[in-house]
Amino acid sequence: MLISLVVYCLLGAIAGVLAGLLGVGGGIVIVPMLVFAFGWQNFPPDVLMLMALGTSMGSIMFTSISSSLAHSRNKGVQWDAVRNITPGILIGTFCGSFLASHVPARFLQLFFVAFLFFVITQMLSGKKPKPSRHLPGLGGMSVAGGIIGVVSSLVGIGGGTLSVPFLLWNNLDMRKAIGTSAAIGFPIALAGCFGYIVNGWNAANLPPYSFGYIYLPSLFGIVVVSMFTAPLGARLAQTLPVPKLKKCFALLLIVIGIRMLLKAL
Q1: What is the pTM of this model?
Q2: What span, in angstroms and rounded, lies between the C-alpha atoms of 156 and 24?
Q3: Which one of 55, 87, 114, 142 has the fewest beta carbons within 10 angstroms of its own beta carbon?
């Protein structure tokens, strides 16, 4: 158990920095690492992926608070965009967690890998939006939030890998897109966490110390460390060349994606 807690604390450190630096909840790294860690702990295969997704959502709920507050202090969050997208986010994420608990585990793994490579393509493409494009109103933001919420819940992320490109596509400044995405991560994680608790409440084969589909020891280890490292990532985002960092992050995702694909097949 001690070795496991050390691993979870390291994951928390990475997740916190990523949350602050790139506006992602860290789930894009946490989920595959939890899959490997839970497999090493011999979790039952039929609940392993769901436990990774649910635990990731639980951790993002805390990292998003720390990260968004740090960005807000630097005036890096567009709060009207957060307000408009939240209704769709809440509905979409909860529905996605319900859907995830009723599909085969291998499908979830393959879906996550496909999503990883979609994210990699987006990061490396460097496409620029039309100058006239801007953020839609409440209706358009709610629809976008619903889509982001469903996908985020299925892959256990805070939505930054979708919301940052969406905000950039609508000509929001890069640094403000990162900060706004960090704030959007909280309603995603809140609804997703609740959904994975409800849908896993009476599930069979859950390991000890589980709360629905959330594994409490790993949640504790990740959260304790990430709450301290998220503000560090937010400070780095104000000074470092974020586009270049995102390309480096994309290379890391390629390695993770290939490994998860081989494991799923």
Answers
A1: 0.75
A2: 11
A3: 114
C-alpha closest to that of 26 among 251, 217, 185 = 185
d(CA 44, CA 182): 33
Match 């985002």 to its residue by tokens: 237
Question: What is the three-state SS of the chain?
Answer: CHHHHHHHHHHHHHHHHHHHHHCCCCHHHHHHHHHHHHHHCCCCHHHHHHHHHHHHHHHHHHHHHHHHHHHHHCCCCCHHHHHHHHHHHHHHHHHHHHHHCCCCHHHHHHHHHHHHHHHHHHHHHCCCCCCCCCCCCHHHHHHHHHHHHHHHHHHCCCCHHHHHHHHHHCCCCHHHHHHHHHHHHHHHHHHHHHHHHHHCCCCCCCCCCEECCEEHHHHHHHHHHHHHHHHHHHHHHCCCCHHHHHHHHHHHHHHHHHHHHHHHC
pLDDT along the chain (265 residues), means of 10: 77 77 68 85 88 88 82 87 92 84 75 76 68 81 88 72 80 83 87 88 89 92 83 77 69 71 70
d(CA 31, CA 8): 12
Nearest 5°: phi and psi at 181? -60, -40
Structure tokens at 249: 């992050």
Rg (CA), the chain: 17
